Amino acid sequence: GDSVTQMEGPVTLSEEAFLTINCTYTATGYPSLFWYVQYPGEGLQLLLKATKADDKGSNKGFEATYRKETTSFHLEKGSVQVSDSAVYFCALSDTGTASKLTFGTGTRLQVTL
Amino acid sequence: GAGVSQTPSNKVTEKGKYVELRCDPISGHTALYWYRQSLGQGPEFLIYFQGTGAADDSGLPNDRFFAVRPEGSVSTLKIQRTERGDSAVYLCASSIPGHTDTQYFGPGTRLTVL
User: Fold this and answer.
1) What's the sign of the alpha-carbon dihedral B5, B47, A106, B8?
2) CA distance A59 to chain B (A)
3) Does B33 touch chain A (CB under 8 A)?
C-alpha cells in the first residue's frame, strides 16, 4: 500500500539557518504530494503541493520538488524564522484512492534565536 | 469565511461507553473526510464522504466505528463500546468539488477513553 517516510525529529535550528526535512514515498499510481504544517495549538494547514513529476511547490519561502526517480519530496527553506517552529507532515494522495491522504509521522521543527 | 468546525474539542469517556463526534465542513464543500491522529503519529484516514454517501470507508478500524452525513453537510462519527486504544485526536477535513486533493482541516476532537 501507499506509505510516506519522513525524517524523525525534533530538528533544532538557529534562526536564519537552512532547513531540509526529508520525505520519501511509496505509491502504486501517480500521486500528488503535499506538505502540511501544524503550528502549536492550531489545526493542520496545507503548506504546499505538487501534482506531477518535476513540479516544484512553494509557499512562505518553503519549497519542495517532486522527484519521481528518487520518490522524494524534500522540504527546504533557505532561512528559517522562530515563527516556523511547528510540526511538518509530508503526505500523498494517490490517483486511485479518491484523494484520501496518507501522512508521514511528522517532523517537529524548533527554531531558536 | 468560517473554517471546518468540530465539536466537542475535548471528550473524556469511560471504557465501554458510546460517543459521537461532530464535524461541520466549510459551506459548499461536498467532500468530507475523517482521520484519526494518535500521539506522535500522522493522521490516518478513516472515511470519505462525497455528498451524503460514504465513498470510501476502508480506513474504519472495525464495526464499532460508524459515520453518517445525512444531508450532505454536517457529519457525525460514532464510536460504540469505546476502548482505551480509541484515545486519539479525531480530525475532520473538507474540500471543494473538483479539488479533492486540497483538504481543509478542522481543529480536531481530542478523545480520551479512561
Assistant:
1) positive
2) 15
3) yes
Yes or no: say if A35 and A87 are a contact pair by the CB < 8 Å rule: no
Identify residue A42 by its one-letter amino acid code.
Answer: E
The tens place of each residue's pLDDT in chain A, 113 residues long, gives 889 999 888 999 999 999 999 999 999 878 999 999 999 888 899 999 999 999 999 999 999 999 999 999 999 999 999 999 999 999 999 865 557 899 999 999 999 99
Residues 6+ positions from B27 with CB-CB distance below 8 Å: B1, B2
Answer whether B43's CB lies under 8 Å from A103's CB: yes
How far apart CA B25 and CA B101 sit, in angstroms, is 16
Is B42–A105 a contact, with Cβ atoms under 8 angstroms apart?
A: yes
Residues of B in contact with A105 (CB under 8 A): 40-42
* A vs B: CB pairs below 8 A: 60
Q: How far apart are the first and last CA of chain B?
A: 37
- Cα torsion through B55, A71, B39, A108, rounded to 10: -130
Q: Residue B101 is nearest to which of A4, A93, A102, comparing CB atoms?
A: A93
Tell me which residue has cell 505538487.
Answer: A50
